[in-house]
Amino acid sequence: MLPLVDYHVHTARCGHAVGRMERYVERAIEAGLAELGFSDHLFMYWLPSDRRDPQLCMAEWEHDFYIEDVERCRARYKSDIAIRLSTEADYIPGHERELEAILRRYDWDYVIGSVHFLGDWGFDDSRYLAGFEQRPIDEIYAQYFDLVGASAESGLFDTIGHADNETIGQMYIDLAVSRLRQKFNASGPAPHLIKTVRGEGYLFDVQIEP
Fold first, then answer.
1. Is 192 within the bounds of a domain?
2. Is 79 within a domain?
3. pTM greater than 0.85 (yes/no)
4. Which of 102-111, 168-177, 192-201 has the highest mean pLDDT?
5. DSSP string across the chain
6. Residue 48, domain member (yes or no)
7. In angstroms, rounded to a whole number, what is the distance separating the alpha carbons of residues 42 and 63?
8. Is residue 10 within 8 Å of 39, Cβ to Cβ?
9. pLDDT tens digit string along 112-158?
10. In angstroms, how far is CA 1 from the centroid of its own chain?
């Protein structure tokens, strides 16, 4: 049987994860994982510092501290679990040489390449859901997979993160549900007819009179 591993783990530094790194490691040990790879988001290297979103990645000045924290955990838990040092780096066309220079500064165990932006649009961020109203879903998927292919061909990464990206379809569903909720609210006071069920999706909750 293949050993249990998790090579895609973020930390609180990226702005959308919580908790201490030690707790992640301890939980992995409790779950019987043989290896754990910290792969926090690389800073948004293609943008000036004042335009980098702290909810999407760590700041550039934090990067060396992140690596120190991974090495500290590796040393502390070395008898219980193998810890790998990684980063998840966005592939941005036209910035390949810049990214390559950054990646060469560190001795990574592996590097994950990902596509989170179509141009300036962070399409898998719920804060920018309105962007799905401006283009057909087939066009979004086509552009996304073109970039995934280009990222794989760039030679910058050891693996590609969430290449199938179900987020695009989910975002369209979220947009449709949001529109329905707005229509229900516009028609007057009403109970929450569409409920969000964590880990499942949505529930249309209507009571029908016999």
1. no
2. yes
3. no
4. 102-111
5. -PPPEEEEE--GGGSS--S-HHHHHHHHHHTT-SEEEEEEEPP-TTS-GGG--TTTS--GGGHHHHHHHHHHHHHHTTTT-EEEEEEEEE--TT-HHHHHHHHTTS--SEEEEE---BTTB-TT-GGGGGGGGSS-HHHHHHHHHHHHHHHHHTT--SEETTTT-THHHHHHHHHHHHHHHHHHHHTSS----EEEETTTEEEE------
6. yes
7. 8
8. yes
9. 999 999 999 888 887 887 787 788 888 888 898 999 999 999 999 99
10. 29
Q: Which amino acid belongs to residue 107?
A: D
Task: Read off the tokens for 163.
Answer: 């290449």
Burial class of residue 19, CB neighbours in 10 A (0-12, 13-18, 19+) = exposed
Instruction: State the average pLDDT over residues 86-115.
Output: 97
Query: In this structure, how many other beta carbons lie within 10 angstroms of the beta carbon of residue 204?
Result: 9
Asked if the structure places residue 40 within a domain, the reply is: yes
pLDDT at 39: 97
CATH of the domain at 106: 3.20.20.140
Q: Say whether pLDDT at 187 is over 60.
A: no
175 vs 158: CA distance, rounded Å: 34
Q: Which amino acid is at 32?
A: G
If one counts the domains in the chain, the total is 1
Residue ranges making up the domain that contains 75? 5-165
